[in-house]
Automatic annotation (TrEMBL):
Organism taxonomic ancestry: Eukaryota, Fungi, Dikarya, Ascomycota, Pezizomycotina
Residue span, RRM domain: 2-74
The protein's name: RNA-dependent RNA polymerase
InterPro entries linked: Nucleotide-bd_a/b_plait_sf, PH_RdRP, RBD_domain_sf, RDRP, RDRP_core, RRM_dom
CDD domains: RRM_SF (cd00590)
Chemical reaction(s) catalysed: RNA(n) + a ribonucleoside 5'-triphosphate = RNA(n+1) + diphosphate
Source organism per UniProt: Xylona heveae (strain CBS 132557 / TC161)
Length: 1224
């Protein structure tokens, strides 16, 4: 039922109305209601779920008693009556869902199941508190923590005496300060996950100090018309700023401690510590002192020292020193004090060692503050750490090759992050090469990859408040000032298409090569001729081809490349858009360079060559070394390139997964819900079985390509064969559980359901002309299943799929034995016949590297097939002159502002669920067209016109779009209840109405509710606890100790103790690399990933499935961790290592006297791995990671297996020789 409310002030918010009416309606038994005010109008509507109670409330208002005490809201009398407007059905669904959710939460709070720790009641400290949460303040200091001998002191670099308030909310603390001389205010927002510690302090002036690990968000609020303070909230303007005044701008990126001066109530702040999600509150009275010099002066002093004292040192050392200060590890003055010792290290061990020692130091330094003792940051302690780092690094300089020497496809990449408030440095990291870096191998440090992001590392969400940040701060860095690093000035260079969507681009500093000064313009000119391109977006996309990561580069002979004609249909459409051919001789060079050892080798590749890009497929008819490109592949005239660069290979059929877009498409095309529910249920059952046995766990890890570099699947099977249960080890159990949790969240929150009868494959064209219209040739070849050719009707589609015609039915056929197509595998071959090519019918696809989904599960076949979308071609922007660097930089900013691809796709998903016709609804078809325009924005420069966006009245979304329970790993894997967000909105988000959710009755809602994460995961952990009680898992030793006993028993004759010191260094190297990855790929460096996430190379979604940003970070994380683990494993098993001389040699020699003569064959590798395992078992308390022991255990068991085989072979050979001698 709707209640109409009249005469409310236009400044009223929905939150304020809810707060006012909650106790009043509660007297009539009304707990579930929603308020909707009409912006700028003096009325609102209250929707109530309990109809009879609402009627009682209205009747009560008309009673004489009530008439004598009328309702007054914000000083005004208001009137309530029954509304005559139609009821919003979706709002009713929302209220029904919220009521059920509240009841479920209450049941969980009341339940006490002692045999399941998940359901136990939270400790008292986590319960909500009724403590005061708004405090008046009269000033703010911004500065740094420091130490005066052993005393913690606050160094104030900014003081501003402004009246205001400090408010503690559910997820953040917000400070509102009055602006000087203006009717407006400053807002400072500090999310709780950015606060290390809150420190109330007494003394003459009570205060509360916030120690942050990143800059807060800051806004200015002004009125559009300062003469009137009674304007509606729509006249209020919020602007994102980098500081509250000019003085603050100078320090905001490097001063992360804020002290607010309280008028009173200091003791009440301590009562807030019992609130859930509240950061640590630690009472500590500290002195305020003035700095010896301005922070800017400290940076200038360090810059001068860099130019004078270490001017001849390598760039990386200067980079690391600047990173120490810019990233707020220590102050510039502290770095100046360390400089003499760093110079000594550089002279003694070299600049690279000194740089590595400083880089390692940056991860060892704790943040100054109440939780850190003065001795941990004193000069002597930092010097001690530097010298220890030097020793560790020197060891590996002598005993290990650099990764870039061992792997020629990677190089060091320097990185910077630009936020609204600061600039921070990262790296260098080993990453895949691109063409530009490959062209200048001696000057890679002159290239800088720069990300423009939020303070917390996530992409900057553009709205009107961020306009000044985008077009003032970011624009000045891109177009004018650049980024100054260690005496160099890096200026904008370019970006790839993928990095554009990640808000990342490349900068470079000038350098001299062969007597020629090279800057950004000259580097681009060397790539090719772009003078004929008049569209900044297209020009940037073409230049961006050179920034695509290409792991392999194959030299080609002169004359090996030729251009062949494109294939066109009757209506002039391209059927060969983006695909060429290649000879076997070129393929063999690729196979040799990529060291493919499998019998089945790729026959299709995604490539870059000069100005060309696209796919190439094997043509057996080409002789010699030939690469055939088509005009559709050549995007510009490239220069000076003799290398064929490989981006990706069709080396296997990729698994097929459904997603929400495709499920909605299929549902509205007639596929019954039962088809999806059965597939999901089968996937959930498979996940449930994973932890039951080593075989199940190993198979799933292999299928998911998780832990394979560290040989974890092989290790689990081997432990099982030794009658050792992985369930008895905490790390291995957690590893398998987090793998299951990540997969479960992908199922529930993204509907990413595996389809066994489906593939994902690269697409190429039938060069023979054999295939007819609506026919495809789909072939796969794997070592497990051999060659498979589909010969049936199949559904084919690609992502994204929003239009009903984005999925088509075609006939998959076989080809004659003598057909050249027989040479292809792990791809789908499209026909060159018909009026329109099939790839373009599938969401505008082509053949330059798009992946296609092939479904041969008949239960998923659409009952209806629609004509594909046919949108008019969008003409690229034309600026009427050659494109300049500043044009591309401006487009980079424009794209950040106007890329609405995600917004369009989300609205399509919402409306398709709400509208009876689903994706066939007119508004959904309009959105599909807008989405197509938005996809091409990066190449055409023409953004989607948001004025064409359909309206979705009411912030109501289907339940499958809601967040899930919060996942934490720090103290073991755990899912927490999702708390209802009751924090009042104010500040820049004041007019943003939070989304509310209803239970969708469509298939996506059914799939979502079919998975209960908490029940599933608690059952999984209960099952794990029962397995630990099994006799097989009970032992007086740890599982790793049992492995050691087995190894020690089997290798009595192997000498390994001489490798102890060497093994200690190996462990240091492994731990340092993994910890570096945990920090580098975290959403924010101050909140490192858990070891499990880093080891698996998969970041756990906090409130559901991984976000797009987390998925992108996970790709880089996995590549680095796999590379690091491969390096460690290769180093252990290599046979060129000499045992280090040890001071304890006589004792070791005596210990080794117990062992027999060296065994033949694999002894060195086995001995080294035994030493590594021994060190981990004996000195486990000293370890910084849990995973290393299982990496070396896997290596050790593998080498033991090889050694036994070698030993058996030797004994067999010796026996044969003896027999031959006897017979002779």
């Amino acid at each position: 039922m709707d209640i109409f409310v009249r005469n409310i002030p236009v400044q009223a918010t929905e939150k304020s109305l809810q707060t006012f009416f909650r106790p009043i309606l509660g007297q009539f038994g009304i707990e579930n209601f929603a308020c909707h005010r009409f912006r700028g109008r003096g009325f609102a509507v209250i929707t109530v779920l309990e109809v009879e109670c609402a009627k009682a409330f209205l009747i009560g208002l008309n009673l004489p008693v009530a008439q004598s005490r009328p309702l007054k809201f914000m000083g005004r009398r208001i009137w309530c009556e029954s509304s005559r407007r139609p009821l919003n059905d979706f709002l009713v669904k929302v209220l029904q869902k919220e009521k059920r959710d509240k009841q479920r939460r209450q049941m969980r709070m009341n339940a006490t199941i002692y045999d399941d720790e998940y359901y136990q009641e939270e400790p008292e400290c986590n319960q909500p508190s009724e403590a005061k949460d708004v405090f008046p303040i009269f000033g703010v200091h911004c500065g740094l923590w420091d130490y005066d001998r052993d005393e913690l002191v606050f160094v104030s670099h900014l003081k501003s005496l402004k009246a205001g308030t400090l408010r503690f909310g559910q997820r953040k603390a917000t400070v509102i300060l009055q602006m000087n001389g203006l009717e407006g205010s400053h807002f400072i927002e500090m999310p709780y996950d950015s606060i290390q510690c809150i420190t109330p302090g007494g003394g003459a002036v009570p205060s509360v100090t916030f120690s942050l690990d990143r800059c807060p968000r800051m806004y200015t609020k002004t009125l559009a018309d300062a003469k009137s303070s009674s304007l509606p909230s729509s006249s209020v303007k919020f602007d994102r700023v980098s500081g509250i005044n000019d003085a603050h701008l100078e320090i905001t990126g490097n001063c992360l401690v804020y002290r607010f001066l309280l008028l009173a109530d200091l003791e009440l702040i301590m009562e807030l510590k019992n609130r859930q999600y509240m950061p640590t509150i630690l009472a500590w009275t500290t002195r305020i002192i003035q700095p010896c010099a301005a922070l800017a002066q400290g940076f200038l002093d360090l810059e001068k020292a860099t130019q004078t004292q270490i001017s001849d040192c390598h760039f990386e050392l200067k980079f690391q020193l600047q990173k120490l200060t810019l990233n707020n590890h220590i102050s510039p003055w502290s770095v100046l004090e360390l400089l003499p010792v760093i110079l000594e290290i550089a002279k003694r061990s070299g600049d690279d060692t000194a740089a590595a020692a400083v880089k390692l130091l940056s991860r060892q330094i704790p943040f100054a503050g109440p939780a850190t003792e003065a001795r941990e940051l004193c000069n002597s302690e930092l010097l001690k750490r530097l010298i220890e780092n030097e020793k560790v690094i020197n060891y590996f300089v002598q005993h290990a090759d650099e990764p870039e020497i061992k792997y020629d496809h990677i190089t060091r990449v320097y990185q910077a992050t630009v936020t609204p408030a600061g600039i921070y440095l990262h790296g260098p990291q080993f990453e895949g090469k691109n063409r530009v870096l490959r062209c200048y191998p001696e000057f890679t440090s002159h290239f800088l990859r720069v990300s423009f992001v939020e303070e917390d590392g996530r992409p900057l969400r553009f709205d009107q408040t961020n306009h000044s940040i985008l077009y003032s701060r970011f624009s000045s860095i891109l177009n004018d000032s650049g980024i100054k690093v260690a005496g160099r000035v890096y200026k904008f260079l370019g970006f790839s298409n993928s990095s554009l969507r990640q808000q990342t681009c490349w900068f470079m500093a000038p350098f001299v090569q062969n007597g020629e000064l090279l800057c950004a313009e000259s580097v681009i000119a060397r790539l090719g001729d772009f003078s004929l391109i008049r569209c900044p977006a297209k020009c940037a996309a073409r230049i961006g081809q050179a920034f695509s990561e290409t792991p392999l580069a194959i030299p080609l002979k002169e004359g090996a490349v030729k251009v062949i004609d494109d294939v066109k249909g009757d209506e002039g459409r391209l059927f060969s858009d983006g695909v060429g051919t290649v000879s076997r001789e070129v393929l063999e060079k690729i196979w040799e360079k990529s060291q493919i050892k499998t019998k089945t080798k790729p026959t299709v590749y995604q490539i870059r060559y000069a100005g060309a890009k696209g796919m190439i497929s094997y043509d057996p008819g080409l002789m010699g070394e030939q690469l055939c490109l088509r005009p559709s592949m050549i995007k510009f005239q490239g220069r000076n390139s003799k290398f064929l660069e490989i981006c990706a290979a069709g080396d296997k059929p990729f698994p097929m997964f459904l997603n929400r877009q495709l499920i909605k498409l299929l549902e509205d095309l007639g596929v019954p819900p039962s088809a999806f529910l059965e597939l999901q249920q089968a996937a959930v059952e498979d996940l449930r079985k994973i932890t039951l046995s080593a075989q199940n766990a190993a198979s799933y890890l292999e299928l998911s390509c998780l832990g394979t570099t560290a040989q974890i699947p092989w290790l689990l099977r081997t432990l099982d064969s030794l009658n050792l249960s992985f369930q008895s080890d905490g790390f291995l159990c957690d590893l398998v559980e987090i793998t299951v949790l990540i997969a479960l969240r992908e199922l529930k929150h993204r509907s990413r359901i595996p389809v066994a009868q489906g593939f994902t494959l690269f697409g190429v064209m039938d060069e023979t002309g054999y295939l007819g219209q609506h026919e495809v040739y789909c072939t796969t070849d794997t070592e497990q299943k051999g060659r498979v050719v589909l010969t049936q009707r199949v559904a084919i589609t690609r992502s994204p799929a929003l239009h009903p015609g984005d999925i088509q039915m075609v006939q998959a056929i076989d080809v004659p034995e003598d057909s050249p197509l027989r040479a292809l595998h792990n791809c789908v071959v499209f026909s060159q016949k018909g009026s329109r090519d099939l790839p373009s019918q599938l969401s505008g696809g082509d053949l330059d590297g798009d992946l296609y989904n092939i479904i041969f599960d008949e239960s998923l076949f659409p009952k209806e097939v629609y004509f594909p979308a046919q949108y008019p071609r969008v003409e690229p922007q034309d600026i009427g002159r050659p494109v300049e660097s500043s044009d591309m930089a401006d487009f980079f900013l424009q794209f950040m502002e106007m890329d609405k691809l995600g917004r369009i796709a989300t609205l399509h998903q919402v409306l398709a669920d709400k509208r009876p016709l689903g994706i066939l609804d007119y508004d959904c078809l309009r959105l599909a067209k807008l989405h197509s325009t938005a996809v091409d924005f990066s190449k055409t420069g023409i953004p989607a016109d948001l004025r064409d966006l359909p309206r979705d009245f009411g912030h109501f979304r289907p339940d499958f779009m809601a967040n899930g329970p919060r996942a934490t790993i720090q103290k073991g894997l755990r899912l927490e209840d999702l708390e209802e967000d009751t924090e009042p909105s104010f500040g820049p988000d004041k007019d943003f109405e939070p989304y509310r959710y209803y239970e969708s009755d469509k298939v996506l809602g059914q799939l979502y509710r079919a998975i209960d994460e908490q029940r599933f995961f608690s059952g999984l952990q209960r099952q794990a606890r029962l397995l630990k009680l099994h006799p097989r898992t009970l032992s007086r030793h740890s599982l790793l100790g049992n492995v050691w006993e087995h190894i020690n028993r089997e290798t009595q004759q192997v000498k390994w103790r001489q490798y102890i010191d060497w093994a200690r260094g190996i462990r240091e190297l492994y731990e340092d690399n993994l910890i570096e990855s945990m920090h580098r790929y975290a959403m924010h460096p101050a909140h490192p990933l858990d070891e499990l996430e880093a080891f698996l190379g998969s970041i756990l979604g906090k409130y559901g499935a991984q976000s797009k940003h987390q998925r992108e970070k996970s790709v880089g994380l996995r590549a680095k961790v796999e590379r690091d683990i491969s390096f460690i494993v290769d180093h252990i098993v290599s046979n060129d290592e000499e045992p280090a001389k040890q001071e304890t040699a006589p004792m070791m020699e005596e210990l080794n006297n117990d062992h027999g003569p060296p065994a033949p064959g694999q002894e060195t590798a086995l001995a080294k791995s035994i030493a590594c395992l021994f060190l981990e078992v004996e000195n486990g308390a000293q370890r910084r990671t849990r995973s290393y022991g299982w990496v070396v255990a896997g290596v050790c068991l593998k080498e033991l297996e090889k050694w036994k085989e070698c030993l058996s072979h030797s004994q067999f050979t010796a026996a044969n020789k003896t027999a031959d001698s006897a017979s002779g």
